[in-house]
Structures are given as C-alpha cells and as structure tokens.
Amino acid sequence: MIIIKTKQEIEKMREAGKLLASVHRKIADMIRPGITTYEIDQFVEEYLEKHGATAEQKGYMGYKYATCASINDEICHGFPRKEPLKNGDIVGIDMVVNLEGWLADSAWTYGVGDISQEAQKLLDVTKKALYLGIEQAIVGNRIGDISHAIQSYVESKGFSVVRDFVGHGIGKNIHEDPQVPHFGRPGRGPRLMDGMVLTIEPMINVGGHGCTIDDNGWTARTIDGKLSAQYEHTLAITKDGPMILTDQDSLE
Ligand code: MF3
Ligand code: CO
Prior knowledge:
This protein is α+β, with helices and mostly antiparallel strands. The protein has a single domain, classed as Creatinase/methionine aminopeptidase superfamily (Creatine Amidinohydrolase). It contains four helices and 15 strands. It has helices spanning about 5-30, 35-50, 115-135, 145-155; strands at about 55, 65-70, 75, 90-100, 100-110, 160, 165-170, 175-180, 195-200, 205, 210-215, 220, 230, 235-240, 240-245. The strands form five sheets. Strands 1, 2, 4 and 5 form a four-stranded antiparallel β-sheet that branches. The protein has a three-stranded antiparallel β-sheet with strand order 3-12-11, with no helix packed on it. Strands 6-10-13 form a three-stranded antiparallel β-sheet, with helices on one face. Helix 1 (about 5-30) crosses helix 2. The chain is globular, with a radius of gyration of 17 Å. The N and C termini lie far apart (about 35 Å). About 50% of the residues are buried. The mean pLDDT is about 100. Bound molecules: 2-amino-4-trifluoromethylsulfanyl-butyric acid and cobalt (II) ion (CO). 2-amino-4-trifluoromethylsulfanyl-butyric acid (MF3) binds near residues 77, 94, 96, 199 and 232.
C-alpha cells in the first residue's frame, strides 16, 4: 500500500532531509586519507543528536551503526570500521535521519584523495543516473520510467545496474511501498501520484551487476571485485515536479 503524504508531512520530511544534506556537506569536508569510517559514523550520530534527530538505521533490523560505509567493491551496507581510508578509495556513506518521527534517506559516494579516472567516471555516471531518474519522477509517469531512464543511461556508458537492492517509498518507516528498481521497462509499474515520497538510489558497478553477501550477513560486494558506487536522494512527487528533500545544493 502506497502512503500518500500531505503538504505538511512533506514539509516535515524536508526538514529531516535538510539536516541530512547538511551532514553530507560536513562529511565531504572530513573525507581524506587516514580518516576512518568509524570516526565518521560517530560524528554523524553525535551531530544528529545535537540537532534533535536520531540515526534511524541504528537498531534497524539489528543493524548496529548510524551509517553504512561501503568502500570500493562494497555495493551497500558496509560496516563503519577503524581501518583508515586510503588515497584512491571511494566510499559511499548512507544514512537515514529521523526528525520528530519523519524520515529522510540519502547516500553519497566520496573520492578519497586522488582517485583513478575509472573511479571518477563511475561517480559521474552514477550521480547523473540519479538525476536522470529524478527527472522522470513526475505525476502521471510510472515507476518503470524512472527505472528505464537510469538503466539505459548507465548501460550506454558501459557500466551495470545492481538488481538486488532498490529504491523505496519512505515516510514514518524506512521502507514503504512502492519498490523503485533502477532497471526495467518504461510505462510499467505503479503510476506516480502527487504526495508520494520515494528514494531513488542507483548502485552502479564498473563490471558485472552480480553481488555476494559477506559473512557478516549485511555487506553486499561485487562478485568480480570491481568498483561500485551509489548516490541516493529522497524526493516528493508534486504537481510542480519532483522536490528533492535531501538536496545539498539548496542549503545556504
Ligand atoms: N539507507 C538504506 C536504504 O536505502 C537502508 C539501510 S538498511 C540498514 O534503504 F539497516 F543498513 F540501515
Ligand atoms: Co534507501
């Protein structure tokens, strides 16, 4: 069942989203060779609490951290750890903010120091894929229009779309209907309506789309060991077009 949100509810999610966007801005300033994802995770938890919010991922289905930190061939659900980031790594930081009961979800991938040309292309293509998906998030379109825009662009650049993890509705719960695959056929799936709030969060691989789960039961990584990246926004579908609730560019 898709839960439609009122304007007031979307406004509350926008506040959660602004806080989340400001956290990503801070992380961008912290990222450098030698920092650990454990330090970043602790920073995020404290920063959110200082701002009257909580990290929704902590305790979600037994997950232990405020953030997911997925390095290089890790696709998603990497654990924050005390091993320092190295020059040339890429690291995706994903988190869900709970502000007064309303959630926002956003992941961003950061290059550490100087990254390879291939890694930079992966980040550029993945971010552009997210925004091409968002462009399709308009009243009257269908979920499949978002999926198709992302898949066709990504594959035209020679990369592949992860199948095992998808975007989702979000509100008072992290995962609501509908599912938002980042691959699929145009004109298929649920119709987009005013007041729906979704995440779009393509995970894109340099090599094949296959993934395997680590022994920790959480961390997904590429089978071929090649790089994977992810960008994610939470957005509302409105009559005036998509409203990105976790937008970093609109922060002053
Ligand atoms: N932020 C993730 C998503 O996009 C949720 C991660 S689940 C967790 O759906 F348990 F790791 F937090
Ligand atoms: Co999500």
